[in-house]
Amino acid sequence: MITVIPYIPSEITVHLGTPSSSAPNVTVSFPDYVKNVASSEIYPTWGVSALRSNILAIISYAANRVYTEYYRSRGYNFDITSSTAYDQSFVNGRNYFDSIVTIVDEIFNDYLRRTGFVEPLAASFCNGTTSTCDGLSQWGSQSLAVQGYNSVQILQAYYGEDIEVVADAPVQDIIPSYPGSPIRMGDVSEYVVVIQVSLNRISQAYPAIPKINPVTGVFGESTEQSVRTFQQIFSLTVDGIVGNATWYKLVFLYVAITRLNELQSQGQTFYEISWEFPETLSLGSTGERVNQLQYMLGVLAFFISAVPTVSVTGTYDEATQLAVRSFQQYKGLEQTGKTDPLTWDAIYNTFMGIDTTVLNDPLLFPATEEPQAATTVAQLQKQLQAVSAMYPNVSAPSSTGRWDRQTQRSLAQTQSAMGLPRTGKVDPTSKSALIKTLTDGQYSKSSQFMQFPGFHLSFGMQDPIKGGTKWKK
User: Fold this and answer.
1) Domain locations in the chain?
2) pTM (2 decimals)?
3) Dihedral (C-alpha) 276, 278, 284, 290: value to the nearest 10 degrees?
């Protein structure tokens, strides 16, 4: 099961104005942000239960902005604004009240949510006198505190009986939800689950987007087709790959459609995918469970020579049957070619063993980021060094940070290898082609985990020798 756990950010970046204004940003610790807003919004002489209920609402609202990436998914470089027309009052540099500081230090990592939902509640509020709203009334909370209500009772009076307080949430730096590298055909991870769940929900508003059923965490053909349709509808590059732009468009629309950033949201429940045995799979079976099986077999084939590789097609074909029979022979099981409960569990356990001990080893499979166009000579030299490891006719320049003949020669050789005019000059076409070459090398179009070197390997080739020649026969 994949569990989504919101967190309290250690810091939060505040835009000192309306979202589109040219005002500056300030980054402050999250407790200081809450102390600032509370000192700006409420009176320190109010009852303790009124102060606690208001502070919990402030915390929860800000945590919701961070969790939903409300502004980040729109291309802004901040998490929340200081404008009360959009968010909460924040006065940069102001002093805090002692009574407020004491409570914030105690509960800054608590937040509100509706029972059964994941996201922090978008706990809107207003003063209750000059303005009213569907959320908490600040002056009304003080009135209830005087009547003897505790903070939870006050919050339930305004937000409903299904409100609960999450205590001692984890505190960490803000981590962008985008995994850092594109997700594509053959991938299996919690990120694929997020993509599949998001697409299924968005497809309710945009029926042209094919639904993915069931949600499995395997990026198969149905997921790729759904991604392509989504990209076409929203004028994104139609490649079936979830890169940064596609990911954040998914975030933006999912949040908007489910209203996660509003008090009366439809709510986000915990994601679950099941790897438990579904039913006996055999020749002719189709569906996402076959995708899961084929993906696992494809991974096993790279580590167990007795198991032939298979493609992830969603159809239990003869190649899949042969791979299953070969695995059964390898494990000493009855060689039926059918995936029964015993075979499924054996395949899954072997796959998870490899995934845990090998594929998640950062030394063997380091995380990589999508290549970006070089903006300095040092970055260009680093990219040319990477290309030289992919193409034997490209020499690697030294990391000098200066434009020299060695760098010019390496660039000219790279241009020649990419079928471009051999000018040795940096131009937009060369930059674009260089990024494409690095991307193709970093992410092979196959479902393999290892990185493709950029050219075919043949018998007799050797790995690069330190201080010697590269890829020699």
Assistant:
1) 8-172, 288-359, 372-473
2) 0.62
3) -30
